Every structure is written in C-alpha cells, then in structure tokens.
Amino acid sequence: MILRSRRAVTGLVSLGAVLALSAACSFGPPDPDAQGTPPNLPKPSAAESASGAPEGDQEVAVTVLAKKLEIPWGMAFLPDGSALVTERDSGRILQVGPESDANGLTVTEVQRLTEVQASGDGGLLGIAVSPKYSADKTIYVYYSTARDNRIGKLVLKGKLQPIVTGIPRSTDDNGGALAFGPDGYLYAGTGDATPTGTQAQNPKSLAGKILRMTTAGKPAPGNPSKGSLVWSLGHRNVQGIAWDKTKRMYASDSGQPKNGELNVIVKGKNYGWAKADGASTNPALTSPLYSWPINDSYCSGVAVVEQTVATACLLGKRVWLLNVTGNGTVLGTPQALLTGEYGRLRGLVAAPDGSLWASTSNQEDAGDPAPDDDRIIRLVFSDGGAGIT
C-alpha cells in the first residue's frame, strides 16, 4: 500500500492507494441510527476542490472549523450535529456549531466547571453525551481534582454530580477517554498514575484500566468481576476509545518509554503494562493490534469509519490510518496523514455526517503553537464522505 500526499496552500491533502478503499470501507455517511444531523458546515472553496490529482488518488479536504481554543481535549456530538468540546486547563465546555460564519463554526462557552483542578495532563478531559440525550439532556465528563480523577454527570449549565471518584491522579498519565459503548454502558480509560506501573496490574485499583459502568457509576452487569468497574487492565494511559460496526472495541495507550499502542480491547484481558512495552511473548498478556515507536505516536483520540481505524498522535504529529479486516487483523501497513501539518493532534472523533474531526494540542507546554492554535479541523474524504459533491 502506497501513500502519496500533496498539500496546497488552501488545505488540501491528496492520499494514494491506501485510502482508495472499496465501497464497503469508504469514508461515507454514517449508519441511519447515528446520532445527530449534519451541522451547517463551511464548504471548501473552489480553490479547495479536488483538481489535478494523479489518477487513482483520493483527496481529503481539510477545513479548519474553529480557532484559538485552549487545549481542546474531548469532543462529543449533540443531536443537532453540534459538538461539545472540553478544554483541559480552563475547565470550559464549549459548543461548536451548528451555526457558522466566514471564520468557521460558531464557538460558544456553555459552562466552566469550577470543580476542575488542572495541572500536568490532568484537567477537564473526556466528554460523552447520553444515548438518551433527547429525553434526559445529560452529559458525562472525566475530570481531575486536586486529589483524584473523577467521572461526573450534569445537565448543561447545571450542577456537576460525581458518579465515580478515587481514580488515582498524578502529574502525567491520567487517562481521560470517555464514551458510551454499543451496549449502552459508559466506558472510561484511566492512566496508571505511577512511573513504575504498579497500579495497572492491581485489579483492585482503578488506575491503568478501562472501566465499564452504568449511568449511575456502578459496575455494569457482565463485568469480569462482579462488583468491580474494571473491564480490562494493564494499561499505561488510555485517552481514546471507539468501536467498529462489529462492536469490536479499540483503545489507544501511550506514555510507555518505547512504544505507543493501538489495542483491541477484550473483556478481562491484561494489556501488559508495566510487564511489557509493546508486543509481548507472555501468553498471559495481550499484545497490541499495532505499535509504533513512541516518537512516531503517543496517540490519543481514536475513531472508526467502516473498516478504517484512525488514531491522532501527539509526539507523532499525525493521524495513523489502519485498514482492519473483518477478523480483526491489520491489512497492509498503517499510513500516516497530516504529518507535521498541524502540530500535536489529540482529539479524534467520527462526526454524524461521516467526516472526522480532529483537535490540536499545541497550547500545552510541549507544543509550539501557531497563531490560530489550538484548532479543530475536519477531514472529508472524496470517495463518498460528507461535504464533497
């Protein structure tokens, strides 16, 4: 599989054969039951339209949707197609869209959570919208206090109610992934919160785990151990989770000294940290679906569209694309998109209209911000994805 890339001043990237996927795995519209309707997005100008690409190439329109944000972290969509976006350090929840103007989508501060105490990579992190939002108007957030990490729920502009407390807190490796699974339960990715990995292997600790819970924060039925929130263990720092159409679950894992990982998550499995860094020959440990050198990865957000799994990377400053077969193996070699184009990339979600939204993370200490940072960008694929006509 070969990737050719071409970038014009206007923001077009041309991909090669890696993204010339079959109709079954194109970046097309979502399933009919996908939540939300497309927002009124700015469309690529004539200068941004596909032109002059080598025959057989597919083009990806890259549109900046929002600018000058402060370390955007989590993104989740409301039924009207707008997105709720968290800012890690400010503790703000922003609404992006659905209205737009000449500068992109409108950005409105909905609420600032005073309970958030940000430092290091802790703060206001993941966000999830209730599957029953039209009825209950409830959202869920993963956030840090001075003492611990927590999961809470609230009606926007209302009081934050913690439902899980006591997730270990540290300067680094606080996790923060949060999403509802296809089973209707809420999943959260946590960080080990220690440099030695001692908590990731302790089944009684909430650190270094993926948790599965009810909307009240209680252990969900069918968890590996009755009365425990733990779904999987042996993780270093889980900041992204997503599912494909077969309900196969994927999660990023970062912070290891040598490797960044993309894992297929299976109930009760041990993913190795700190006994393993990347693939392991120990049959008691589950090796990653794919791993990269840490400087090419340190990935955070994960999104799935058809058979393509994508993950956005901080140190790697790119999006990795993997074509995953029906039996869960990687077809060919993962391909890199946007390498170095927008700096550190953290958030990555599949939007209701079939596009991908990514966020930059250049305002944090490790970043090198451009004048418009931080930004949310939209990737629209020309072989059937939203927005290309």
TrEMBL record:
Pfam families: GSDH (PF07995). Keywords: Signal. SUPFAM superfamilies: Soluble quinoprotein glucose dehydrogenase (SSF50952). Residues 30-57 are annotated as: Disordered. Residues 69-364 form the Glucose/Sorbosone dehydrogenase domain. PROSITE patterns: PROKAR_LIPOPROTEIN (PS51257). Residues 1-23 form the signal peptide. Residues 44-55 have a biased composition (Low complexity). PANTHER family: HEDGEHOG-INTERACTING PROTEIN, HIPL1 PROTEIN. This is PQQ-dependent sugar dehydrogenase. It comes from Paractinoplanes globisporus.
